Amino acid sequence: xxxxxxxxxxxxxxxxxxxxLSEFVKAFEEKFDVTAAAAVAVAGxxxxxxxxxxxxxxxxxxxxxxAGEKKIQVIKVVRxxxxxxxxxxxxLVDGTPKPVLEKVAKDxxxxxxxSLKAAGASVEVK
Length: 126
Fold this sequence. Notes:
Blueprint: H1 6-15, H2 18-32, H3 36-46, E1 60-66, H4 71-82, H5 86-94, E2 98-104, H6 106-118, E3 122-125
Antiparallel strand pairs: 1-2, 1-3
Helix pairs in contact: 4-5
């Protein structure tokens, strides 16, 4: 039997249906006592596959890092943003750094950060 080149093998695989290819992979795994999943996991990042971490972030956290001099104003803004009660909002402001909003859209995170900064707080958006 003549040895097939990698290009010839790929050409054969292109002609196969997904079911035929799945059956081939199962037969290959049984014949050589290997799993295709392990090979893909090792070869995936090395082949330059895009990593999910590089995807654009669509959820942001607004973290209050300091209340500033106008603590009462900051508590009011926190209450507006979160609908917390007075005691809960005060505890959040007193316990900085704490997240005010978690997993919100970019626009909402920016607006919340602007509101908190306008009240005199220091804020981080992650």
